Amino acid sequence: ICQWVLAPWWAFALSFVQVFILWCLNFIAVEIENPFGMDANDIDAASMQEEMNRHLMLLLSPQTSKIPRLVSKNGEDERELT
């Protein structure tokens, strides 16, 4: 950096910015490595599991096993059309 600038305070400022950015990237990487925890910005795995269980139970529900029937625009049954 000393070769880029003439004033020593510019060298200090640019060095500080580079070190600050690298520390910020390090802290972001630490948060990404452990997304499941008790921090405010962590992923709530328990609620995600409960939602997944609700969706799976919905698939087992008797109402979801009904197969739709094809009906023509004028109301005739599909078997009558063939």
How would you characterize this protein structure?
The protein is an all-alpha fold. Helix content is 56%, strand content 0%. It has three helices and no strands. It is elongated and about 85 Å long. It starts with 7 loop residues before the first helix and ends with a helix. The relative contact order is 0.05.
Task: Chart the SSEs and their pairings.
Blueprint: H1 8-33, H2 45-60, H3 78-81
Which short descriptors sum up this protein?
82 residues, mainly alpha, 3 helices
Which structural class matches the secondary elements? mainly alpha
Return Rg in Å: 31 Å
Strand content: under 5%
Mean pLDDT: 82
Portion in helices: 55-70%
Short recap of the structure:
With about 80 residues, this protein is mostly helical. Helices cover about 55% and strands about 0% of the residues.
